[in-house]
Amino acid sequence: MPGNDIDPILNMTTHETVESSSSTSSSSSSVEELVRDILILKLMRLVDASKEDTETLNAMYGQIDVLSELVAKINAMTDKDGKVKVDDELFSMLNAVLTSDDLTDQQNDLKMSPDSLNILEVGKTYKSDDRQRLLENLNMKIKSLTTKTETKFLDLSQGYSEKLEAQQVGRQIINNLDNMMKSLLRGIAGR
């Protein structure tokens, strides 16, 4: 049944879809094939966008985890006077969350600027006020990333809804074309 012709197309990889679309677009002779080609292109766009959104979302969640571990490490190392002595592990954890020229702009968006973190050398001690300022900066970055992940998740959900809608519209159009063709053939046959 032609209404089921779209199912294999929806399950194709982007590469397979491009090959299928390019091979059929030059020989498209029916409305059904044209509709299928248009839906393939729309679904390819949606799949590619959702892959990018998912990768970005995963990177954001990963950075939130790293920053949360850093906050926990600072809290665990705080003495009774509110001071934190920098050891090798804390020093490397702080440096790991900094922006760098080696990273892409998207990767640097997840990191913190050196100005926002006053990183002391190993063996030096953060005073209580400096420690509090460091924690506030880390928590603000966590909050900012959390807000961005919520927005990105909404984008991903919207893309998923668009994909489902495109699948439903595609099936409906193909079913309508199939029914119209059957009706036309019955009319020609005189039934």
Which value, in Å, is the CA radius of gyration? 27 Å
Sheet with most strands: strand arrangement:
1-2
* SSE order, one letter for each helix or strand: HHHEHHEH
Number of strands: 2
Give your account of this protein's structure.
There is one protein chain. With 191 residues, this protein is mainly alpha-helical. Helix content is 74%, strand content 2%. The chain has a two-stranded antiparallel ribbon with strand order 1-2. The radius of gyration is 27 Å and the shape is rod-shaped. The model is unreliable at 1-15 and 21-28 (pLDDT under 50).
Keywords:
disordered N terminus, 191 residues, two-stranded antiparallel ribbon, single chain, mainly alpha
List the helices and strands and how they pair.
Layout: H1 6-10, H2 14-25, H3 31-77, E1 84-85, H4 88-96, H5 105-110, E2 125-126, H6 128-189
Antiparallel strand pairs: 1-2
Concise summary:
With 191 residues, the chain is mainly alpha-helical. It has helices at residues 6-10, 14-25, 31-77, 88-96, 105-110, 128-189, and strands at 84-85, 125-126.
